[in-house]
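It is worth pausing here to work through a concrete case rather than discussing structure prediction in the abstract. The textbook approach is simple: state the sequence, then state the predicted structure, then interpret. We follow exactly that order.
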Amino acid sequence: MKYRVTVLSGDGIGPEVMAEGLKILQAVAAKYHHEFEFKSELIGGIAIDQTGSALPAATLKTARKSHAVLLAAVGDPRFDDPKLPVHPEDGLLALRKGLGLFANLRPVKVFDQLVDASTLKPDVIRGTDFIFIRELTGGVYFGKPKKEWVTAGGRKAVDTMVYSEHEIARIVRAGFEVARARKKVLVSVDKANVLKSSRLWRQVAIEVSAEYPDVTLTHALVDACAMQLIRTPSAFDVIVTENLFGDILSDEAAQLAGSMGMLPSASLAGIPVSGHKTFGLYEPIHGSAPSIAGQDIANPVATILSVAMMLRYSLALETEARAVEAAVNSVLERGYRTDDIMAPGNTRVGTRQMGDLVAAEV
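Step two, the predicted structure:
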């Protein structure tokens, strides 16, 4: 079968890590007799330069005709001025909304070979392997009203955190489905002691739990969860939460793995049911890192693991996904490291060589 993949290399180190992700897909195609058709489009700063828009209409049109979208990085310091009318990140938000990508999956796994790469004690993070399910198209990032104005007493601004029962139920179901395929334990994170939207969130989560009697549901306040992620990260398996909390907590948890260059993500338009294909966008959680662009030192592993997630969730190719993950593990076991995870006794490699090594293992 031919699989159509929209390729969005974006800004900074994006083209470099994307090249390695595509290299892995080509290795998968050769071994398992698949065919991948890649269609490159623009997003982010490079799209603003060439079209004036962070998300050209052509990009969204191509993405909608694909089986999946693979994105590398968005961001350019030339557009950091908040007074500018358009920013690279606007393209990513518009893409998520335009494709209906409501479920963001961010796995956080501490590889045994990298327990010393984190600033936390090895005995605290060893065995950590959990996944965030973050609601991606609602909450304070999209709620109305959202504005800034001037009064006689000074400037004011407002953002609105709003959630419907439907939005909560579908992301919580995504959490339950992922938990059902793992250890059957789900933690729902909210701020129900303060926020009305969180109280509704907790009510709906409890109601949906009746559909999943085989999964144990517990609740955690977001501040308590933030503390426990540092104190006992290995205690978690699946965490489901709303947009803002998920954004903050998943970035905090990224440090457990020692580098953001190790962590992939998936943004899905449907509930991830094992063995079924769900349209999605796949990207490393790191940024565009313009300061190291073009130097062949960026870590491509997060992009490569994002490819594995794409194979699993959008193409239903579980065997191929596991092969890519096993290849990454094998390369790390042999001591190969990019700059961000380098330690004494390891062998330093660049972006391209790391991709070559993983592709060879596939």
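Step three, interpretation. The two ends are 20 Å apart (CA to CA). The longest helix spans residues 14-32.
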